[in-house]
Amino acid sequence: MKQLLTLFSILIFLSCCTSNTIYKKPKDLISQEQMVDLIIDMQLAVGAKSVKNKYEKRSNYMPLIYEKYSIDSARFARSNFYYSTRIDDYTKILEAVSVRLDTLKKKHEDLLRVNDSIKKANRPKMSDEL
């Protein structure tokens, strides 16, 4: 009897752990390509919060991103939830985001390196000052 109860408990536990729920595709689903662009802009906006901007006192750029893509936060949430339930699709999206962010970072670092070398070349040398 005790073995049967243990087996029954294990079966119930395993059946609770697996999800057979299939979520319907939202009518206003954001395409994967647009999700990549949207997530990149969101990541940049989150990063921009920590940078002081002397021209604009804004700290929350998300409304501007939603406006840029003509969506609202609810539509993004539905699309994000749908893709997160489809792990293969979501992995592709996040990998594309990672690659593009790495590319942007490399371009930014190259630009900083060029600007630093120009500043260094324009700086007066010690012998010129004497």
Task: Explain the layout of strands and helices.
Layout: H1 2-17, H2 32-48, H3 62-68, H4 73-85, H5 87-122, H6 126-129
Helix pairs in contact: 2-5
Mean of all residue-level pLDDT scores:
81
Q: Residue share in helices?
A: over 70%
- Tell me the fraction of residues in β-strands, as a range: under 5%
Tally of separate domains:
1
CA radius of gyration: 25 Å
Count every beta strand, where a strand is a DSSP E run of 2 or more residues. Answer: 0
Number of helices: 6
Assembly state: single chain
Shape: elongated
What pattern of helices and strands is seen along the backbone? HHHHHH
Q: Give unreliable regions as ranges.
A: none
For the termini, the CA-CA separation is 98 Å
Instruction: Report the structural category.
Output: mainly alpha
Largest sheet: none
Structure description:
The protein is mainly alpha-helical. It has one domain. It has 6 helices and no strands. The longest helix is centred in the C-terminal third of the chain and has 36 residues, at 87-122. The chain is elongated, with a radius of gyration of 25 Å. The chain starts with a helix and ends with a helix. The mean pLDDT is 81.
